[in-house]
Amino acid sequence: MLALRALELRIERCLVGAMRAVAESARDEAAVAALTARAVTIASALEGAAATPIDRLAARLRLPAEELDFLWTAIAVTIEPRLAVHVEALGGSAARRGVSVALHTRLTSAGTTTAIDAPGRALAHRLSSGHPLVAHGVLVPVGDHALAAVRCYAVPARIVGFAIGDDTLEPGLRRIEARPATELVFDEAQTETLARLSEILRGGEPALVVVEGARGGGRATAIAHALGHAIVAGSVATLDGDPTAAALAVRREALLSDAMPLLTDADRLDADGARRLAVFLDEYPGTIVVASRPEHDLGASRPAVRIRWPLPATATRRALWERLAHAPSGDLDALAHRYKVGPGAITRAVSSARILGQSGDALGLAAGLRHNIAEQAGSLVTRIEVTQRWSELVLSDDTRDQINALVARIRHSHQVLERWGFRGKIARGTGVAALFSGPPGTGKTMVAGLIAHELDLELYQVDLSQVVSKWIGESEKQLARVFDAAEQGHALLLFDEADALFGERSQEVSSATDRYANLEVNFLLQRVEAFGGITILTTNLDTAIDPAFKRRLAAHIVFELPDEPERALLWRRMLDTGIAPLGEIDFDRLARNFPKMSGANIRNAALSAAFLAAADGAAAISSEHTQRAARVEYRSMGHVLAERR
Is residue 314 assigned to a domain? Predict the structure, then answer.
């Protein structure tokens, strides 16, 4: 209450000063005398007034009296509607945008002169040359006036709220308090990283600290814990591609809250945004922390310190699931092994599972985690609904055995890698990458979907049109985003027509295009190897896949065109829906007469035969309908038609 009264006095002092300046212009001596007396009374009351948040901010910045007065004038003009008419009368239309040093002088001068004195000229110069109030975003320059004395400054809404005691953060910002160690769960590797991070953050030298790691891995909580102090975090990835305003908002809030600033999502900026952020980081005077994915170059020229924040180990992840989900039922060991995520991602998953009413068991928590994948990958992937069944699949025994072995490898990875200790034998990632090659229509994409359904995974197909970019480095950035999202949700990633991305590298580099194409493939090879999830690539040209990638495969399954008995079985299964009426159909004849058909071609022909029967008003799909449909499909394939027989 006392601070609020002090705030009212400061606003009233500015209002009285404006009214007195207007009275001076009108040569109203009586009004000038009355308002001068009122100004003296206000000044006397302010001598014993309580400190406001703005006064405490000024003490933190060590502002001299004339700079604090200017800040109060800017706040008063923004917050007090009665000032508007007086300010516009004194400063013209420019006063609608903010307060200049010239206008401030007229509002606060004790005499009739309106000239800017020496302190005023010095203030105008300081404000126009990197003053802390401007650098921290407390005062925002308005317009591009070249003259320092008449350049206008405004205060953002957050400063007005701060002045009246409102602690609400700006949209998109988070304040993370340092939590007691008893409330946190860290493994041995994370504890060692915390010690190094604490030494850097609590040191006396200003530093640019880059904390690398996965989103949702608990980096912000770890930074606050290592610092032993609150941090203010905000994303710099804005819709307009300019991170400066977002970074300035974080810097301003860190000043107001006396906290450490943390900038996130720097790796999601385009080239122009990255350059703007680099300038901001170079100009920041103190220690600032940036959370980014590994190996992302910020482009800043000031020295940086990089700390890799590891994801929690399996046992720690299990403890986090148990604590954050309040001891759910089910196999938490398998849940912790399958989903390599940190506390942030686990918290979001628990919240999603609660909305679904499934937070009480491990299966529901897994579903909650998978619901957040699409939010992170955005338009880069497409979720595929799997509607087929294993019974519809017709493959050779050898191919089916290879598929069963691949499923078993994925299903039992926790037992083999964790319980039997084979994790230490693997150099990098624990994921599974498989290549499905063969002619079009042989069931490669279908099998990928069936494997995902069998393992209760979401199937996401990578949209190459969204991922591949002509700009250098953008494709790698988009792919990193896809892999990060898929790894946290343990989704199955499908790269259809993978030879477009995983093509063989050029041995003879004759242009910049060849060099950057090779770099893109190098990145993919490393990222797939480090990936902890499941990647399936399909291609019609397995010879075009880089040999170095083939060495990293858990399985390379070749899908051949079906032989005659398999084609007959495919015809039978494609036409038999359990509902559709079927007449006498010679499936062996169909398989014999059209030998070049794949499973997809047979599916197309079977569907066409059903439409032909419906169009004829027939009681059942007959042999004539299937023969006609098969001939049309065969012709569309570019093959010579078999004779009618």
Answer: no
| pLDDT band per the 50, 70, 90 thresholds, residue 504 | low
What does the chain come to in residues? Answer: 645
| Bridge partners (DSSP) listed for residue 433 | 535
Q: What is the DSSP letter of 428?
A: S
- Which residue bears the tokens 């004539």? 624
Which H, E and C letters describe 110-157, residue by residue? CCCCCCCCHHHHHHHHHHCCCCHHHHCCCCEEECCCCCHHHCEEECCH
344 and 296 together in one domain: no
Of 540, 305, 520, the closest CA to residue 445 belongs to 540
Q: Are 58 and 68 in contact (CB under 8 A)?
A: yes
- What digits encode the pLDDT tens for the residues 168-215? 998 889 999 998 878 888 999 999 999 999 999 988 788 899 999 888
How many Å apart are CA 69 and CA 75, to the nearest integer? 10
Retrieve residue 149's tokens. 């004395």
Does residue 315 belong to any structural domain of this protein?
no
Least confident of 29-33, 155-159, 480-484, 640-644: 640-644
Cα–Cα distance, 83 to 87 (Å, whole number): 6
pLDDT at residue 261 in the model? 95
Expressed as residue numbers, the domain containing 577 is 564-636
Q: Which of 144, 163, 182 is the last residue of a domain?
A: 163
Of the candidates 370, 423, 372, 432, the one whose C-alpha atom is nearest the C-alpha of residue 557 is: 432
